[in-house]
User: What shape does this take?
Amino acid sequence: MIERIPQRGKTDCTICAVAMVMGHPYNYERVLRDSEKYPKISEEGKFYGWWETYLRDEDFLIEYRPFMELYRLPQYRGQVAGLLMFDIPHIKYSHIVAVDELGIIDPADNMPPHLDIPEYVLGRISQGAVFHKEFLAVADSKTATY
Assistant: This one.
């Protein structure tokens, strides 16, 4: 089970979500410090998913999976977590949350520790969110059994 790490600012959801899926000994401060080693903007001037390289460098297994497979994460009993990204076009904002066997862990202010996946997704869609077609499945290569 993932422990929630709340956001400290409006734009640090990625640091929080990455730290959450990595677990101990990765905390907010460590991931923030480590993230400074990775480029955030590609050579083409686009936002770069630095966390993918970071997770691989730290010996995590990662794979983009279809959005609908998100609902299957409980079957892995905590061995596989997810990073789920979505955009909120009307406010030009993107957000990322962690997902484990108990549901969604949103680092945003005033969110509970876990939220039901279908309820969270439907709630965000009703607020105008557009979920990415895939989520990033994450497993620790030292403990993965899938």
Remarks:
- The chain has a mean pLDDT of 92.
- The first helix runs from residue 13 to 22.
